[in-house]
Amino acid sequence: MDLGALLTDPATSVVVCCGAGGVGKTTTAAALALHAAEQGRRVVVLTIDPARRLAQALGLTELDNTPRPVVGVDTAAGGSLDAMMLDMKRTFDEVVLTHADPETAQQILDNSIYQALSSSFAGTQEYMAMERLGQLRAQAEADGSWDLIIVDTPPSRSALDFLDAPTRLGSFLDGRFIRLISAPARAGGRVGARALGVGMSVATATIGRLLGKQFMLDVSTFVAAMDTVFGGFRARADETYALLQDKGTQFVVVAAPERDALREAGYFVQRLAKDDMPLAGLVLNRVAVSRARISSDRARDGAEMLEESGDRHTAAVLRVHADHAETAARHRRHIRDVAAAYPRLATVQVPLAGADIADLPALRSVAEALTSQ
User: Fold this and answer.
1) What are the strands, taking DSSP E only, across the chain?
2) How far apart are CA 220 and CA 230, in angstroms?
3) Locate the AAA+ ATPase domain: which residues (predicted)?
């Protein structure tokens, strides 16, 4: 996989990094963003991962919903790098304020159902990620702020939940239960409620006794107000979904060369193929490489002999080598298995680093490994 050519290609406008948790996905996204910026691209990197590793690696004290310039990037080629972290509720609030009149927007923001939905409803984070990606793309097209957007997704299989987010949130607001308890407001007050019929009235009254009148009122008010803006949500989500399928978008799956992580990577590869999402390839991260000629078995035998003779220091070194050699052998086996299972899947390998990736020089070393193969 030629990530160097991919990142410098003007036709590439969006790169989405996805993968299981703990495989170095955030570091990979940051390294790709740094490399692209130092090759002349105007880059913004968006992390959806609630952990703050991206800020630390880029030398920033914090990240929030507003893109911040990264200091220390080599801009000699004309590029730039901004970084941000998704603030789910703030993004939701901004959408409401933008697409509803002031009175309706305030009704929504003050509503208890909205406050719960915007803070903790399953799928809201992924839905707002699509909103934010769409906003960044629109801003880039409007003023040329960026020509490349790199997205770092949440860990594990939720990394692809944003593909289902519009349908999930739409199903919630269009679901039978929500339609039932919000029917009077949608039908236009008392006259509309009478028009719904006796059966609906009895059902609504029963739910009201179970859940309380205030809850019913909050839901009814919320859905009635959201009707004015939710259609726009769906339209923009559909546009972003189409963007993800566009040839200018490339997905990069990140995995460690271990059985569970590669199993998750296989799920991502299959799901992306099912949804016709353009897959650049697989990054095999933190690959253990052993160049010493002594095998792990010989190293352990030698360690035992040295321990018997009292040379515990050298024995400890040999045991560390034996463990590393076994890990390297295991990684080679798993990588061969991946190649056999997905013979057409492009890959790139990043060696296991000797220290944490916590600054720009360390990120550059990762970028070098990612783009030099």
Assistant:
1) 14-19, 42-47, 68-69, 80-85, 148-152, 249-255, 279-287, 347-351
2) 15
3) 12-246
Bridge partner list, 81:
43
- 329 against 43, higher pLDDT: 43
- Taking every pair of Cα atoms in the chain, the longest distance, rounded to a whole number of angstroms, is 96
3 state DSSP class of 273? helix
CB atoms within 10 A of CB 219: 21
| Strand, coil or helix: 231 | helix
Mean pLDDT throughout 36-53? 86
Long-range contact pairs involving 262-267 (C-beta distance under 8 Å, separation at least 24): 262/334, 262/337, 262/338, 264/19, 264/20, 264/156, 264/157, 265/19, 265/20, 265/338, 266/341, 266/342, 267/157
Alpha-carbon span 369 to 56, nearest angstrom:
20
CA distance linking residue 173 with residue 178, whole number of Å: 6
* CB atoms closer than 10 angstroms to residue 156: 15
Q: How far apart are the first and last CA of the chain?
A: 7
Q: What is the pLDDT, as a whole number, of residue 133?
A: 86
**What is the sign of the dihedral through the CA atoms of 79, 85, 86 and 89?**
negative
The residues, ordered by sequence, that sit 6+ positions from 192 with a Cβ below 8 Å of its Cβ are: 183, 184, 186
- pLDDT of 206 reads 45
Listed in sequence order, the residues at least 6 apart from 59 whose beta carbon sits closer than 8 Å to its beta carbon are: 70, 71, 72, 359, 360
More confident residue, 243 or 121: 243
Q: Cα–chain-centroid distance for residue 311?
A: 49
Amino acid in position 224: A
Angle at 44 between CA 40 and CA 47, to 5 degrees: 140
- Report d(CA 186, CA 24) in Å as an integer: 48
Q: Specify the amino acid at residue 86.
A: L
CA pair distance 207, 180, nearest whole angstrom = 9
Residue 336: other Cβ atoms inside 10 A: 10
- Residue pair 38/73 in contact (Cβ under 8 Å)? The answer is yes
